[in-house]
Amino acid sequence: MLPPEYNLTDPRLYRVATTDYVTLVQLCHESLSHYLARFYKVRPDYRIPGTFFDDLASVDVSSVDVCLVVGLAVFFTVLRHHFTEGISKPLAAWWGIPILHIHKFPESLWKFFYYSLAWGFSFHVHILSGSYNTFYDPLSIWEPWASGRIPAVSWDIYAIYISQCAFYIHSIYATLYMDMWRKDSMMMFFHHFIALSLITLSYGSGHVLEGAFVLFLHDNTDLLLEMTKLCVYAKKRENGEFYRILDMLGNVFFVLFAIMWLVFRLYWYPLKFLYTTIYAGVYLAPQDSPFLPVIGSMLLILQMMNIYWFTFIVKMVIRVCRTGEEPEDNREWDTTAVSGIPREQLKQLAQEGKLPSVSIKKKKR
């Protein structure tokens, strides 16, 4: 590969911890114009789509990596099944989760379990370990690329990549066959495909620290979403008991979820990461790096998805403020599909205290 055009100490680089939106647009316009003007000088023989597929064939993914990912994806799927049957459903029956939420509780508990571990480890790697300064100095991501050669992958970043790649493969299957179908399920399926493609291309081309930073900026909101849902599902029981502490915690987690989505996905993701990749990557990555345009496009698509999903959050906030109703996943279709009872009838039954629980004994009959 051709070495980077600049180095990190070059005075021509705009280097800050977090930029602003106006500056980001100006910097990206400048860098993309520069990239397009330089592209055919460094890759004069590039042809679409032939050269792209040639580059794709050169992606460095070993058979060991593939076996690990596939095996771990199968493991996640099997583990989720046993987690659901052995922990989630008995817990839901023991707590007396009403039928309105009985089908959603196991899904949320599984995702809470996974994201607690995944984001907890990611937080340790990026913030607590002291091994990387990507959050406070995003352009330092490109320091290992100074020679123009693909940098070595450390064990912690490798662990994040292999586990997350496996989880997205599992999630594609789960979206189609295990999760409750929602209005945005096809969007979620597309998101998992984009994420899986990003992980594969970035790993195969050596951009692993960048990819791990993306995951760090996204997974915490998934964790808070599941914490909110679990509190909503568990605060009212079939016997009429109402747990005010869970109601309060659900509201707190929902507010934190909305704030964290705004801060991590709509503020820090574009102003730290897109600034680092779409602007600085043009000057600090190898000049002939094969997948920068593709990866950059996918990162922008991911940001558009973040904005799209934020509209659901805004609608939910407006509804809660106007009506005083509890936070509820407004992406869901009518509950007839999962319970056999229309949502309005379920709400009426809930008000009358007539909702049955789904217990282990009833499931066996």
Automatic annotation (TrEMBL):
Its main location: membrane. It comes from the Eukaryota. GO terms for biological process: ceramide biosynthetic process. The keyword Transmembrane helix applies. Pathway: Sphingolipid metabolism; Lipid metabolism; sphingolipid metabolism. Keywords: Membrane, Transmembrane, Transmembrane helix. GO terms for molecular function: sphingosine N-acyltransferase activity. Residues 118-322 form the TLC domain. It holds the Pfam family TRAM_LAG1_CLN8. It is found in: Membrane. GO terms for cellular component: membrane. It is a multi-pass membrane protein. InterPro entries: Lag1/Lac1-like, TLC-dom. The keyword Membrane applies. The chain crosses the membrane at residues 61-79, 112-135, 155-177, 242-264, 291-314. This is TLC domain-containing protein. It comes from Steinernema carpocapsae (Entomopathogenic nematode).
